[in-house]
User: Which sequence fits this backbone?
């Protein structure tokens, strides 16, 4: 039997998970009624994972914090191909963004609809989209 306090061990595990590589993490079920990150917490996540999140920004739309980024491409065909790859990622993760595709650009916006705000899943998917863009 361990003398370790289970509450402390659980907190340490959560802290370790939070600092983990977002690109290799998987989305977890986000339940309605859960608490979204505050804008300050979301900003901290952006700073903490800056190397994985590139140019992602926090924006607010109708009082809901969202992660937003615009990607640039040389033409419509490559923009559309990227849109489809993000769509495949979304299906794999069970977490779906808003996507706006136009000639030479794709805008991606992530947020957790069920909690009306940002969750770790949004940062995971944003990091995975960054990885797709850099491939």
Assistant:
């Amino acid at each position: 039997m361990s003398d370790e306090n289970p509450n402390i061990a659980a907190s340490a595990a959560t802290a370790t998970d939070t600092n983990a590589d977002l690109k290799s993490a998987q989305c977890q079920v986000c339940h309605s009624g859960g608490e979204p990150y505050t804008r300050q917490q979301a900003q901290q996540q952006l700073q903490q994972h800056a190397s994985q999140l590139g140019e992602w920004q926090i924006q607010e739309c109708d009082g809901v914090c969202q992660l937003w980024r615009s990607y640039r491409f040389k033409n419509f065909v490559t923009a559309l191909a990227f849109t489809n790859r993000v769509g495949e990622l979304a299906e794999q993760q069970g977490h779906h963004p808003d996507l706006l595709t136009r000639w030479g650009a794709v805008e991606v916006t992530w947020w957790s609809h069920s909690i009306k705000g940002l969750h770790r899943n949004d940062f995971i998917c944003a990091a995975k989209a960054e990885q797709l863009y850099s491939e």
In short: DSSP finds five helices and four strands in the chain. The two ends are 48 Å apart (CA to CA). The first strand starts at residue 57 and ends at 61. The helical segments are 6-19, 39-48, 50-53, 76-93, 120-134.
